[in-house]
Each structure stands twice: as C-alpha cells, then as structure tokens.
Design brief:
homodimer; Arc Repressor Mutant, subunit A; DNA-binding
DNA sequence: GTCGATCGCTGCGTCGCGCAGCGAAATATC
DNA sequence: GATATTTCGCTGCGCGACGCAGCGATCGAC
C-alpha cells in the first residue's frame, strides 16, 4: 500500500499545486482576452458572468459580487449599457432599486465568445463515463463553494489580521 | 437507457453552465481579495501565480503570460519589487535580459494567503478514491490546456474576425 | 408625519495601463 | 572586424477604471 499512498500523494500534489493553479491562470487570461475582444473591461466580463450564473441583481449586490464600490459599479453598469450588454429595469416594488439584467445581444455575444471553450469541454467530457461525470460535478460544486467562502472571508475581514 | 442519457445531459449542463463558471467567478474574486490583502494589483497576483506555476521568466515572457505590454510589465515588476515579492536577477548569458524570480518572502506571503483554500481542498479530496483523483487530474489537465489554448487563440487573432 | 437607514448616482483625486520612443546589447551580413 | 538589423527592458504621456465622500430619493419604524 506504500506505493498507492505515494501515487495518491503525487496525484494530490499535481492537482493542488499544478493543474488547478494553471487552470486558474488560464481562466483569468481568457477572461481578459474576451474582455478585449468585446471592448469592455475585465471587471465588466466578470459582471456578465455573475449575471449569467446567478441571475439579475441590483447594482449594490453586483458591486459586492465583483468586489467593487457602489460608485464604481454604477460606472461599470453605464459601460455595459453603452456596450448594449445589459439593461436597467426599475423595481416596481422598491422605487429606489434598479435590477440589472443581460440583454439578448449581451447573452449572444458572451455565448459566442465562449463557444470554443464550451465545445472543447464537451468534446473532452464525451470520453467520460457517467460515474466519472458525477465525480467531477461533486468536486466542482465543492470547489465553487470553498473558493467563494474563502473570497468572502478575505473581503469581510480587515487587512490587519 | 433513455433515463441515463437524460441524467448524463443534466450532469453535463450543470457542469458546463453552472459549476465551472461559478468556480471561475469565485477564483477571480478570491484573487482580487488576496491582491487587496497583499496591497498589490490583481495583475500582480496573477504574475505571482505565473511565476510560481511556470518558474522564473523574463519581463517580456511575463508580459505575454499576463496579457500586458512590456512597458506595463516593467512597472508591474517595479511594484512587486517594492512590495518585496520578487527580485530582478541579471542573466549572465545575455546582458540585455533580466530574470524575475519570487523572493522567499513573496512565496511565504502567497502560501499564507492561499493556505485556507488549500486546506479546504485537501479536506475535500480526502474523501475521494485514487480512481476518482485520477479522473479529476485528467479533467483538470485538459481544462488547463483547453482554456490556455482558447486564451492564446483570442490574443493572437485580430479583434475584427 | 418624522426620523433614520438604505439605495443608486455624481465630482474629484489616484493609479494602472497602452502607446510611442529611447539606449543597450546580441545577432546577422558583408 | 566593421556595420546594420533585431531584440530586450525601461521611460514620458494621455486615457480611463477605481475608491472616496457626499448628494437626493425612497423605504421602513415609531
């Protein structure tokens, strides 16, 4: 069993210190490249992802999710509106609030930008059994939860500790 | 088998349109939060990741990897040097070149910043069999390769097409 | 009705970034 | 060996994204 434990340690090390950081780097680079292609900022692209993943949100909630002040978020929304990617929808229940939702054009442009990667990913996943897909889903869900929790923790605590 | 195919489609959809984008969003947020904590820019943190993942590099190579011009990369290195995270080492073989490598302090601070997430990840992976770990490693390697290839493709092609 | 809290939006200063150009050094050409 | 070309990293300059502080508008509590 010693060999198996060594194999396991090697697998863990490769995953945690190589593949995952490498993937994270590539993700940031890709987002940046897509932003340049769409003519918007990296932050704007992150905002579009947030809208696509978690649905319409107010500027305040959006500001928290993309790690911005409400003032900067207001400007970001201005840019995205000008780019035709999102739309401001007044909240009938609370006339202070404004809901931000992606336009059809915005969704289409984002889908086009990531179509290549989605296709590559589907091609890769075609070679996996349903059992393996379940394993991937389990880990991805945990990774999303853990990473979001860490980000939340960092943003909520003071820089001093 | 129809039910199985439906299950498989649901798994694929959840993975590609939910978990992976959600994880990517969390990764960007975490990097931004870590940058704020370390008192540097998001780009600077990405640079530190690149150095940790791919080893020391020249400013020019670094600029390509973080999607920056050589001029901006020079300023970025200035900031990281001032923050005590990296060091400029002259290349004895080519006196034009300078190699950028992380300092011990820089490595320690980065390790501290991500210690929480690494611990969470190891705790999660402790519940996986070696077979499952191999599946994860296979997919993450493919994801890193595919995502990097997409980013490369976007950066190398003109914005017009 | 009054007061405090919350929401989104606007001047102002700071700073990261791209662009264009610089000198230094390695390589190619004769 | 001398000259020309290319490559490398570094510096003024303008643009723009961001944080900060403050504003009016609106909601909820009493």
């Amino acid at each position: 069993m010693a060999a198996t434990n060594e194999d396991r340690a090697a697998l863990l090390g490769e995953l945690v210190t190589r593949s995952i950081p490498g993937w994270a780097i590539a993700v940031v680079r890709l987002n940046s490249a897509v932003a340049g292609r769409l003519g918007v900022t990296d932050t704007d692209v992150l905002c579009l992802h947030v809208l696509d993943r978690y649905g319409p949100a107010t500027p305040g909630a959006l500001a928290k999710r993309v790690n911005l002040t409400t003032g900067s978020a207001s400007r970001m929304i201005d840019r995205l509106v000008a780019a035709g990617c999102v739309r401001r929808v007044p909240d009938p229940a609370d006339r202070r609030r404004v809901l931000i939702e992606p336009t059809q054009e915005g969704r289409d442009r984002a889908a086009t930008a990531y179509a290549g990667l989605v296709a590559r990913t589907h091609a890769e996943l075609a070679g996996y059994t349903e059992e393996e897909l379940r394993t991937l889903a389990r880990f991805m869900a945990a990774a999303e939860r853990d990473t979001a929790a860490e980000a939340q923790h960092f943003q909520s605590t003071a820089p001093g500790d």
